[in-house]
Amino acid sequence: MTSPPPKPTLLDLDGVATRLNLSTRHVRRLVAERRIPFLKVGSLLRFDPEQIEPWLRSLVVCSFDPPPGNERAPAPQPRTAARRVLRPGAQPASPSRETRDRPKAAATPTVRRTG
Fold first, then answer.
1. pLDDT tens digits, residue range 26-64?
2. Residue range of the domain that includes 22
3. 110 in a domain, yes or no?
4. Exposed/middle/buried for 94, CB within 10 Å: 0-12, 13-18, 19+?
5. In a domain, 25, yes or no
6. In a domain? residue 74
7. Cα separation of 32 and 45, whole Å?
8. Residue 92 lies in a domain
9. 66-114: pLDDT as tens digits
10. C-alpha pair distances (Å), 2 with each of 5, 6, 8
11. How many angstroms separate the most distant Cα atoms in the chain?
């Protein structure tokens, strides 16, 4: 008779933190944010190494071009704030001291007539 293949042992919090070279606090944060695969056994956290390895591979950021047939849409470029182009020698506008220090006009109450 053949015996079933041995089941992988689950890692505890310290074990996965050591495997990933992270602090246990950071691993707890990954768990809280649901960013790492984990199991909950009662109140204990456990990690399956067979799920951790593919998860790690999914985090790899490649700096080379993908092979043909695997092209992805280019990442959107971040939007930058529009900059105002000034004439040569012009100074950027800033509020004058008079307008900056002047108290704002109080709103006048509107009187409604009923009739």
1. 999 999 999 999 999 999 999 999 999 999 999 888 766
2. 13-58
3. no
4. exposed
5. yes
6. no
7. 11
8. no
9. 666 666 666 666 666 666 666 776 666 666 555 556 666 666 666 777 7
10. 9, 12, 18
11. 102
